[in-house]
Write a structure and sequence with these properties.
The protein has a domain of 191 residues. It is built from 23 helices and 2 strands. 76% of the residues lie in helices and 1% in strands. The relative contact order is 0.10. The protein is mostly helical.
């Protein structure tokens, strides 16, 4: 009978500790919000989820970041932000009622004070430097705020089992991934740098974590005391925050990051299924006995695979509905708020055909991209069974995945590749513009809708990639797939570039978010206080 590997035994022990931590603590006070106010706020958040659609695992942190930005406009001290922030998040349904300990208010206040100190004591806070660095200050503000949201989410909803699985897969991949020796010896990568890139790639592949949360994890690894920094160390970090920021961005944007991600993304399914098996509702100690027997383990893997396949279909369907509806509503708003007024200024009008095409073109593109996602083939399950058993049990031979560094291309090859890419971009953009011309779009609407199509193409392709979450077998690209890539990838690349630019300069989004959210949140807080007042009056009646 095969023996369970040492790293798998360690992982099971960590899951056992996590399982025991779920037991309800006694004599502990939990934060409570009014149920009626909570239902109203939760309904509003569901409406926002449709309009401001994000991937499911980003919605909670997106709400924290959005609320933080608005709260920072009203107060600059942690003690004035922490409790209202947590109450608002619970009311919005992002965290369960009567589940977060009251002591967490103090923990969140401490986190907020740390980042407020960095914002107020970094070099750009001095007047002499601030005059010429408003753009950089805004980018630093957004960057730190996104990391603050990550740390607050971790405090309110610890993700121990996810971090344990990330460490487990990272340790495994460090043994398996090899970079060509020539690259290391020529100064391309050190062993430490390679290990960090594996750690980053595992997080992106395993749980689709984004840059802010990965940056937060890197900060914790770099500064072991990040959760409780001494005053002197905090001041030192504040003074060097720009160099820290720059070095972390370099790690996230390493020239070989996509190579590492491709390998980790292809082989992440066995680790996901092992995590599912360990949290399948049984005590991890009992599961240890079950996975010790290959025949029982095979049954457990199949069960976890089928369950994840089913939930994947549900998530993709929900993504298709929410993203399509979000784009549909955004197109209507953009048409009447932005495009028609701009067209009138240039003396142009919108025909019924123009309005229909304007609203439906990017909506239909998103629906088409998401609705045509194919599930994994039947042969994929056999590969998954083999790969999962190889990571759980001890093996004599370790699989090696080699990072093949692309050779330097000559000037002539670079020229022809760039020319081919430019031709593909010209054809695809030309087709889109021709459709706009046919529908008699005003020039201003052509630009706005071209940007919209590019952003939708980028978002839709990202969702399609999520559809390959369980796929381990290598897919063969056909001729039509090759042509599709030539014509479609330039549009996706434009969408990615625009998306990254929007993240850097989102002051307008913050303003409109505050404009919409603030009055509603004041109303919800008033409703909650009114409800408490009525309860007090009822208690006075004997």
């Amino acid at each position: 009978m095969p023996e369970i590997s040492q790293s798998t035994k360690k992982l099971i022990q960590k899951y056992q500790a996590w399982y025991q931590s779920l037991e309800k603590k006694e004599n502990v006070s939990f934060i409570h919000v009014d149920e009626v106010a909570s239902r109203v706020a939760e309904f509003y958040e569901k409406l926002r989820a449709i309009v401001d659609w994000q991937e499911e695992h980003l919605m909670k942190r997106g709400a924290i970041a959005r609320t933080l930005k608005r709260r920072f406009l009203l107060a600059k001290e942690g003690k004035n932000i922490s409790e209202p922030l947590i109450l608002e998040l619970i009311r919005g349904g992002h965290f369960p009622n009567d589940n977060i300990e009251e002591t967490k208010i103090g923990d969140v206040e401490k986190i907020l004070n740390k980042y407020i100190y960095i914002l107020e004591n970094n070099p750009s806070s001095s007047r002499a430097i601030a005059k010429g660095s408003e753009k950089q200050k805004m980018q630093l503000y957004n960057w730190l705020l996104s990391i603050t949201a990550c740390e607050i989410e971790e405090i309110l909803s610890p993700s121990h089992k996810e971090r344990d699985l990330i460490d487990y897969m990272t340790e495994s991949m460090i043994d398996k991934i090899r970079v060509q020796q020539g690259v290391i010896s020529i100064g391309g990568m050190t062993e430490e740098e390679k290990n960090r890139q594996i750690y980053i790639a595992v997080q992106r592949a395993l749980f689709k974590l984004d840059s802010p949360i990965i940056t937060y994890h890197l900060l914790k690894k770099r500064e072991g005391q990040w959760a409780d920094l001494p005053t002197a160390k905090l001041h030192e970090i504040a003074q060097n925050i720009f160099s820290i920021w720059e070095s972390l961005e370099k790690e996230l944007n390493h020239h070989l990051k996509d190579k590492f991600y491709k390998i980790c993304e292809r082989y992440d399914t066995p680790y996901l299924l092992l995590g599912d098996i360990l949290i399948s509702g049984e005590n991890p100690a009992k599961i240890y006995e079950k996975i010790s027997k290959p025949e029982d383990l095979e049954e457990s893997i199949k069960k976890a695979y089928n369950k994840r396949s089913s939930t994947l279909k549900q998530r993709l369907f929900r993504a298709a509905v929410y993203s399509t509806l979000s784009i549909f509503l955004t197109n209507i708003a953009a048409l009447y708020v932005l495009e028609i007024p701009l067209a009138k200024m240039t003396g142009r009008t919108f025909s019924p055909l123009t309005i229909v095409v304007d609203i439906l073109e990017s909506t239909f593109l998103m629906f088409l991209l998401v609705a045509t996602i194919k599930p994994p083939s039947k042969s994929n399950l056999e590969i998954v069974l083999l790969e999962t058993m190889k990571i759980i049990y001890k093996t004599e031979k370790t699989d090696i995945y080699e990072i093949k560094v692309p050779k330097k291309r000559g000037s002539l090859v670079k020229f022809f590749i760039a020319l081919l890419y430019l031709i593909g971009a010209s054809v695809s953009i030309g087709v889109i513009v021709a459709i706009f011309e046919w529908a008699k779009f005003p020039p201003t609407s052509m630009v706005i809708n071209l940007i919209s199509v590019a952003l939708v193409a980028f978002a839709g392709l990202a969702i399609r990639n999520r559809g390959e979450e369980l796929t381990v077998e290598e897919k063969k690209a056909g001729f039509f797939s090759f042509i599709f890539d030539i014509l479609f990838l330039p549009i996706v690349g434009l969408g990615q570039w625009l998306s990254n630019k929007w993240k850097k300069y989102n002051a307008i989004a913050v303003f409109f978010s505050a404009l919409v959210d603030l009055p509603f949140e004041i109303f919800i807080e008033f409703l909650e206080q009114w409800r408490y007042f009525l309860k007090e009056k009822k208690e006075e009646i004997h």
